[in-house]
Amino acid sequence: MAFIKEESEDVKIEETFTVKQEDLQEQTDLMMLKEETHQQNEVEEKHQDIPTDEKPTLTKKTSSHRRHLNYKSECNFSCKQSRKSFSQKPNLDVYMRVHNREKHYTCKQCGKSFPKIHFLKAHMRIHIGERSYTCQQCGKSFHHARNLAVHMRVHTGEKPYSCPQCEKSFKQNYNLEVHMRTHTGERSFTCTQCGKCFAKKQNLKIHMRIHTGEKPYTCTECGKSFRNKSTLNIHKRTHTGEKPYTCTECGKSFPNKSTFNNHMRIHTGEKPYTCTECGKSFIRKSTLKHHLRTHTREKLFACVQCGKSFTTKLSLMNHMNGHTGTIVFTCDQCGKSLTRKDSIKRHMQTHSGERFRCSECGKDFKHKRSLSAHMKLHNSEQSPQHLGLVHTNAGIFKTAVFSRSLAVHSSEVYL
User: What domains can be seen in the chain, in order of their start residue?
Assistant: First the structure.
């Protein structure tokens, strides 16, 4: 066992690596290996140069050639993977070490191994925190030059890796490989706990935290923890107020791309999530999930105080505010406080004077839900009474509530 002490100019620390003694002879062995391979190739080339219709003259050169052929026939040591043969086992061992890329250089801090010493040196930058490669445009730094090169494509917009099936392009080849699985349907990474499959190993790793309860990313502002870093970054925008995604139609901004995409469907009218039970479609997948519980009658969220169950977590939270008396939302116009976000939104409309107008008849309403109920009158061939709705000076009301008062003025009651 020998010790090699090196001082790298790139990594300004002294490193001591433990290297197997046979590695010190690897270059010599490889030279022998190359020499033997060269001899074999030379023999094959000379053999091919002899015309098939000529009998070679038995000269000293031919005799040497035959010895080479005999030498070739004695190559009894073969690599099973590449079928390459060698006359001596040590040469095969050297070839196999190169072929299998044995990793003799091991990081003492994390145990990761590498086939070459300069790979280990580059890896050490992660532990010492050295980021030698800095982007001149945004100042972001990287451990390796290749990472900086990939990052620069963010600024240049370069996406050199294109999908041959849908022409979608990517900055990295790895991202293209992962994308191709959406076409092939390949999901190679399976959760051993619940059987769910994933196209990316990283997605499986994040998913496993659902089972373990691990939330390694914590917000320094409020202490809230998350399973993945991207969710934490989006959460931080609630503190900074950053909303980088802006709608070109109405100017409304959003803190994350998924919320922005959902909003854009309001303008396009796209509703990609359809209920298989009743055919109703939705803008958001989460809304479809909640809707499906109306068919299954599933109520997963139960109040610990009174036992009442709800189909959504938000409904439970709103209900819990009734027990605790928590006042969450306050009107900045009049100071009125309410426990539900949707209630405060409706209340704010009384100050703003915002109205919802029917595009069919021009009638105005204070609340969107009132307009929605009104629109059913236009969209249905049934009469308002059959729909369970009546018109009054105060708006639209359910006849079930007012049927008794109407009975005073009329002998006919609509139920």
Answer: 1-29+85-152 (3.30.160.60), 301-352 (3.30.160.60), 360-409 (no CATH)
